[in-house]
Amino acid sequence: MPVGDISLVPLLPIDGVRIGVCEAGIRYANRRDLTIFEICQDANVAVVTTQNQFCASPVQIVREFIKIQTPRYLLINTGNANAGTGQDGYNRAKSTCQALADKMGVSISEVLPYSTGVIGEPLPSERIIVGLDKAIENLKKDNWLNASYGIMTTDTTPKGHSVQASIHGVTYTVTGISKGAGMIRPNMATMLGFVATDACIDQKLLQKMLTHLTNQSFNRITVDGDTSTNDCCTLIATGQVGECIDNENHPHYQTVYQAIKEVMLKIAQLIVRDGEGATKFITVKVSGGKSTDDCAKIAYAVAHSPLVKTAFFASDPNWGRILAAAGYAGVEFDQAKVCVSLDEVKIYERGGLVDGYTESQGQTVMSRPEITIHIELGQGECTDTVYTCDLSYDYVKINADYRS
Q1: Are residues 251 and 293 located together in one domain of the fold?
Q2: How many distinct structural domains can be found in the chain?
Q3: Per residue in 70-93, pLDDT tens?
Q4: Whole-angstrom Cα distance, residue 23 to residue 25?
Q5: Structural domain for 352, as ranges
Q6: Are 191 and 178 spatial neighbours (Cβ–Cβ below 8 Å)?
Q7: What is the pLDDT of residues 147-167, one digit of tens each?
Q8: Which of 168, 276, 365, 372 has the smallest C-beta neighbourhood within 10 Å, fewest atoms?
């Protein structure tokens, strides 16, 4: 079961985006597994993709097509990742793009394909193509919630968020959905994210925003430390509201930026809360570093450690595992200046155990469903935060049975 509050606010429609969802039988019957986004002609679109060298065929095509022209359609399937499938997988993905392009009267390069699911199996492209008409018939503005279900794989709950922000009499809307529960350490630029706003944002600025915001959200989560072959995050600005935001000094820039940030961080954290078999939501905050990169390295070392994660699952305050992980992160620091806390309980400082600390204090914190590990390095002014979960018996069961 997901950890903490995973309830969704109403997912608001975005002017300039219509979404169609259907059951195409890609892997399972009676399951929404094919989704189409239709994007208005004046929109700008930015994309970041996985850094996995075995990137899936649809990722290769997204990288190719996004350089040619602005996409009008996104074509998303679950149940099959179309990764590790060679030229055949590439051809099959392109055939689905061509089929949708022909039906909608656009060029093939205006269709971006996304896939998620099992790696190494041939994409059932014929089922996707047959399902297109049903998805097209279902195109409507208020289909974000259906889409959040339609992109799920091992997820136990849909993930989405919407916000509205106003400035100088103009109200902007941002809505986003994501999927992911396992094989999660995006390292972008199995997770997919789709975010849209009705704001008008210059293309180059939009790409810069997405890259920066991804590094603060999807690139700061980990469930198991595995970077998927299919990770992609797409940001759409439809240009239906307000004047064009073309630089960071524009009076509306920060308002829109913060709204998109809120949505992206929320849907990224929902992935961790729904981590496969997760029972704890863990925030790892590292401060006092010489650089943000140093802080991130230590935070990720702790967040990835199976020994740390299993200790949290058992509610075992084995704080030595946290120190060990921080120490092998490849960052130099003076251990005599380091302080480590679990929530409000300080455990380690000045090179040793805090006077008065008791095992029961640590266990009380470790028994909570949401916990913050705070590591103060005492080396500088920089900070960074990573979000993760514990590692339970169910994680092994889910992934042992994944292809059955």
Answers
A1: no
A2: 2
A3: 999 999 999 999 999 999 999 999
A4: 6
A5: 281-400
A6: yes
A7: 999 999 878 899 999 999 999
A8: 168
